[in-house]
Every structure is written in C-alpha cells, then in structure tokens.
Aryl-alcohol oxidase
Amino acid sequence: MTRSRTCAGLGAWLHYIRPPRLRLGAAMRLFTSAFFALSVGTASAAVYDTVAALEAVATSFDFIIIGGGTAGSAVANRLTEEKSFSVLVLEAGGTNIGQLYVEAPLLCLVATPDTIYDWNYTTVGQTQLNNRELSYPRGHVLGGSSSVNYMGWTRGSSEDWDRFAATVGDNGWQWDNLVPYFKKIEDLTPPVDGHDMSGQLNASVHGTAGINSISVAGFATEIDPLILSTTQTVAEFPFNLDMNSGYQLGIGWAQQSILKGDRSSAATSYLGSTYISRPNLNVLLNARVTRILPTKGNGHFTTVQFQDPSGKVYTFTAKTEVILSAGTVNTPSILMHSGIGDAAKLTALGIEPHVDLPDVGQHLADHPFLPLSWVVSSENQPYGTTDPIFQNATFRNIAIGEWEQSGAGRIGASPIAFLGWLRDKTDKFKVDPAAGPNTAHFEFFITNGYLNFAAPPANGSYMDVAVVIASPASRGSVTINSNNPLDAPLIDPGFFTDSAGVDWDLVRAAVRASYTFVGSPPFAGYVIQPFASNGITLYANATDAEIDAYVKANAATIFHPVGTAVMASEHSSKGVVNTDFTVKGVSGLRVVDVSVMPYIPAAHTQASAYVIGERASDMIKAAHL
Ligand SMILES: Cc1cc2nc3c(=O)[nH]c(=O)nc-3n(C[C@H](O)[C@H](O)[C@H](O)COP(=O)(O)OP(=O)(O)OC[C@H]3O[C@@H](n4cnc5c(N)ncnc54)[C@H](O)[C@@H]3O)c2cc1C
C-alpha cells in the first residue's frame, strides 16, 4: 500500500509558511476571551483551557455537548438563549483565536492536513484507487471543521432536502421548511472591498440578520471574466446567479463564510464575542471525550468520560442530556466505544454492548475529488493567481501584511472562485444517484491557482477546474478495531466501489466536461496546457482507460463525509437516531452533526451542519421547556 502523496506534499508546503501569529483584531479577541476566563464569579461563562479553571466556576450542567464544532457550537448557542439551561461544551482541540491558518481564509490550504488543527486521519487503502491511503482531514480546534474548511457556502438543492424528508418520514426536512432555518443562520454581509454583490448572488434568498456571515470574495480575479463569458456562450455551462436558491444547476460565484476578510466559523459566530459571555455557556478546550457511560445502569447515557492532554481522566454527568456532535468520523467511534453499535462486533473487541445498533458507523458517504490543473499565462503578476503566495516568501508576506491591516487582498478570501453544479446528460443510470433531475451529478471546483492539496510547482501560474462527484453512489464505513478509544478509527469512504460503476461513469463525464469548459473560446490564449499530476497528464481526447488511470492515481476526498449515525423514522428498526436526533434504544443522548444525514447532499456540507444544529436545538428546547 502506498500512502497518498497529498499529505507528504503538503507537509513540505507547510514549511514555507511562517508560524501563526496574532493579528491586531485577533489579539483583541484573545484579550476579551482571557478577560472572561479570569473574571470568574459564581457564574461567569468562558472558554477554559483546564478542568481546574472550569471547576472553579461551575461543576454541574444541564447539557453536555461533545464537540465544539459546526453543529455543536450552533446547539450550544441556541440552548444558552434559555437562561434556565446551563451548557458545557467539551472540545478536544484548542483555541481558534490568534491562529493564522485558521483565521486567514486563503491559508485554509495549509490548515490541514498534518497540523494541530486536524485530527490527521488517513483512510484505509482505497481498493479502487491503487490501494492508496488518503489523507482525511477533520477539524481539531474550536469551531471544528468550520474552522479549517474552504468556506464554500452551499445549501444543496431543494430535491436533496426533500429526499431527506421522504427518507426519514419527517416533513420538517423539506426544503420549504428549512429555508427559514438557512436564513436564520445567514448574515449576508458586503465583501471586504465593499463592492456591489448584486450581480453575484440573489440577496432575496438569503438571511441578513443571522449569526454566520456569508459574502463573496473581496476582489476580482483574472479568470472571472473568462468564466462568465463561457457561461454566456456555451449552453452546457449556464450561469446561475444563486446556487443556494433551491435550484442549483449551472455555474456561479462562490459564496463564502467570510466576514470582512476573516473566516466566519462556528467559533467566531455561534461561539463568538457576542455570545461567549453568557453566564450559562461554558467551553472546555483540550478535553478529549473517550466514552459516554450509562449513568444509572439503565440505558440512560448522560455521563461523559474524557481526558486532558496529560491523560488524566474525568467524568461529568449532564443533568438533562448529552449531545454528541463529534462529527462523522468521531461520533460513531465514540458510540461504539460506549457499547452502542453492532453488539457482536463490539463483544469481539472486548467492549460490553449496551445497545445493538448495527448501523453505527455504516452508510458513510463522501464526495470524491479529482484535481485537474492547467498552466496559464497569468498577466497580473504577482497576484493574478494564488500561486506566487505559496511559491515566494516575499509575495506571501506582502499579501499577509495587507490582510493583517485590513482583511483585504487574496489572503482574505477562499481559494474557490466559482462553483459549477452539473449533470451527466446521457441518462444512462438505472437508478439516478442524484436526488432529482435538478440536482447535480458532479461539481466544478474552480480556483485561480493550483489546487492539488500539495505545494504548487516552484514556478508558473495555474488554474484548476477540479471535479467532484456531487451525488456519489458508493458507500463506506467508519469502524473500530480495538477497545482503546484513543486508537484511530478505520475510515473507509469506499470511493468508486458501487457495484454498478456509477461513480466511474460520473467521473469520466465530469472530466470531459471540465476539458470542454477549459477548451471553450474565452480561455483561448489564457490556458496553455494541462498540467501533470502524479506523473500523468490528461488530454482533452483522453480515453476511458486514461481517465481511469488518472483517477486511480489522483482522486482524494473533498472532506464531506456524512451518514455514520444515520437518521431513520422512530418506527424503523434501522438507523441510529430517530427524527428528533435521540439515539435509538437509549435515553438522555442525541447525535447532532452531519453523521445523521441519510444521503449526502450535492453540496459542501457546512450549511447542512448548521441547519442540523439549528433544527435539533428547537427540538431539544421543545422537549425540555
Ligand atoms: C479541510 C476541509 C475543507 C472543507 N471545505 C468545506 C467548504 O468549503 N464548504 C463546506 O460547506 N464544507 C466544507 N467542509 C465540510 C464541513 O466543514 C463539514 O462537513 C462540517 O463542518 C461538519 O460539521 P460537524 O458539526 O458535523 O463536525 P465538525 O465541525 O468536524 O465538529 C466536530 C467537533 O468535535 C470535536 N471532537 C471530535 N471528537 C471529539 C472527542 N473525542 N472529544 C471532544 N471533541 C471531539 C472536533 O474536534 C470538532 O471540533 C470541509 C471540511 C474540511 C475538513
């Protein structure tokens, strides 16, 4: 088995970047946070680094949330709107504050993998991908994956959510019923350069008074007019003003979770300075949960076992409920180590089974990603593309300096310039893997710079129209192979393993569409030639066999795993959680993160995580108020 080179490449890239340092704004926020931590009274909320500091203030909590990530932070915020609820968030990672890679949007490219902000997982060898073990980043920092993601803001198609609703038998998940939640999450803000966004999105479909800022990039890039021109002249690639309207097909400007050039994450928004001083909200960092224990020996799972970085073990018991929000990889792992999973398999590992739920860890769905890069003749050096920022320390430091002053410039935006949501028009599938005829089969991930999760070449300018299988048919799993909760779980996204070969059909169609796009007249003169990846150069007339060989050598994840604690109707014997997020067969425990999703949406999944957190919060409040 060979390990994917993406990790090794990035490790080298990382060394080009100087260590994290404080921005002025960040320093102020750190000061504010420290102030709250120090101003301990009988009920002063704070972010704590140690159990001792927390216990000096509070020792008893109504709700314990495992994981201060995307969904978990949303739940922590909404529950603490109720002054009568006290909440403790246990987060294994450290602070997001003052962390350059986490705060500076473009530097998301080096926030993972192989950093302190990442759980640094790898998959098992992917049988369809030359048995490569793929890097599998997950956020390990307050804000979770929303603190390290690429900030693309996509809700999915209306059909994605309607299929979710039909699958679990709960109309609350229908698109029309979720739009108010999306709006409640969103705070549509002007880009950092203040330009008029009206031609870049449809403001009427967005919220303007929510918690998490969304916007567009605060500068123009040289590929913008070429992309727009293609959407106006090539019928296959229509322009879509707003892919978040419910109708997603077409190519449009990437909306980003950014606030004036800073990342807007769950940590800066839902746990941001406006809320973190609530006296009933407590966050403990560096607290790695190992198990959830039955509290009274009767299937009531409200005691949480965790350890600090020294290995010292603690338990806290929630007075009301535990909410497990550790994400698609760690949520099933924690459940299994707690005796909730396939009873026979747990017994074989020496774990006492409490509840036999064979679906725990199953149904993993993720989006495979394929880098496709071209050499381009960038005219606006040094910042025509993002490449010089990663190739040249001088350019990089100038760009970081500009961003530190004002949030402006290339560092202050996601690497994603445009996104495209497209379909294989051949209709050859016996069962369409997409949620409906207006839902994408594959995605274009367009960057004005090299995007291969590795250091860019030392010289040259690049563009990527990478492709993603947006509605994959393949499924995988997260399992464990020991009774030690500190051991990494076995992650198998099962890329390209569906028995009908649907995902192979889709990736070939996607690659060909990408070459058609880049070969359209507006790019003539700008695009010079395709660029090799892992020694393979793909040309526009590539055969199926050539595309397949390229995919086997280069496919990776685009980091959207879902489904390992799948939701199913309370009337179904299958699934892990009921439609109110309660874990089947136990009391006192809910799972609230994207692991509950029965299908992967044709979307990047942070908006899904927030909407899950918001809807779950309403249900938890309704159950206990
Ligand atoms: C590199 C990367 C890029 C991405 N890019 C995009 C993008 O551009 N757009 C988009 O929409 N989505 C993107 N995603 C996906 C999206 O961010 C995630 O789907 C979403 O944030 C998941 O939310 P969650 O709440 O389910 O889990 P997370 O946000 O991952 O939260 C889980 C939290 O639980 C904590 N935790 C886990 N185990 C334990 C434990 N044992 N004890 C205590 N705490 C624990 C973790 O540290 C983490 O903070 C990206 C993800 C990654 C990793």
Notes: The CA atoms of residues 154 and 604 lie 6 Å apart. Confidence is low (pLDDT under 50) at residues 1-44.
